[in-house]
């Protein structure tokens, strides 16, 4: 099969590699039809990572079942599926209680199978294959990993109707967070430096949009909340912007409010000065959020499929570019330079 392998310089080369085979009777092989490029992928773009060299990357994907093991009952060949790529070891204390997003072996486990979206075929256990309703296309479904991340963050936040919310970042995660907050009855301020991202946030229902200019966002949230500040702030930018966006999040939140950290950190020790006295004396809660898993009885990945099918979430307005796998480097360049290209969600079609 064709697959895009990570190179020593952090780009990709498309080559022929061996197709994966089913390792167990309850596993499934799917042909990938659409794979997305997310912020985590972009943080590794053009950065030498020796441990990723020659690896197949990508974790936002949807496809068509082509082969099933003898014990598979959940899907059959020809089914269109969203492939959930958050796969833990299945044996640790966290996996046993469906908190597999916290599994200590999460990344090595998922990279060995389901988290290989930039290839023609992937394999995974049947419980990670979610059948798609007829109205949801492969490109729609490729966004639903992102939306599950947002849903998990909202569940952790305890957001309720009439909440006053600020969302920092209007990429796919920030826009997904916006749609979920609006569907739950919140008033939302969306903050992003990119004009087309702010315009899209407004189109998707943001009550106010704002660039992160010094003091402007703070003034806007105070005006929205009778001078109190946001009940909940979602930091959805992450990466190299975190030293600016996390302090901003703590300035936007009210006394007794919550900051949910959805955007990802880079690896290693990162020094980010915060007003710790104000945070402590105001009893502000900082909530880290990582991927998704189950909320009570419900798989969050399956929940966002239902929300999209019922019209609570939108996808097509976010899908700005599509590329074939052979043009993966161009796709990454387009996604990275979003101010120039107008990119929001960039997909790879196969």
Structure description:
The protein has 350 residues and is α/β, with parallel strands linked by helices. It folds into two domains: 2-143 and 315-349, Quinone Oxidoreductase, Chain A, domain 1; 150-288, Rossmann fold (3-Layer(aba) Sandwich). The chain contains 13 helices and 17 strands. The strands form four sheets. Strands 3, 4, 5, 6, 7, 16 and 17 form a seven-stranded mixed β-sheet that branches. A six-stranded parallel β-sheet has the order 10-9-8-11-12-13, sandwiched between helices. The radius of gyration is 20 Å and the shape is globular. The mean pLDDT is 96.
Q: Quick one: how many beta strands?
A: 17
Number of helices: 13
- The CATH architecture of the largest domain comes to Alpha-Beta Complex
Q: State the secondary-structure class.
A: alpha/beta
Residue share in helix: 25-40%
Number of domains: 2
* Shape summary: globular
CATH class category name of the largest domain = Alpha Beta
What's the CATH superfamily of the largest domain, by name? Answer: Medium-chain alcohol dehydrogenases, catalytic domain
**How far apart are the termini?**
11 Å
The poorly predicted ranges are: none
The H/E string reads EEEHEEHHEEHHEHEHEHEHEHEEEHEHHE
> Major sheet: size, sense and barrel closure?
7 strands, mixed
User: Per CATH, what is the topology of the largest domain?
Assistant: Quinone Oxidoreductase, Chain A, domain 1
Strand content: 25-35%
Mean pLDDT: 96
Rounded to an integer, what's the Rg over CA atoms? 20 Å
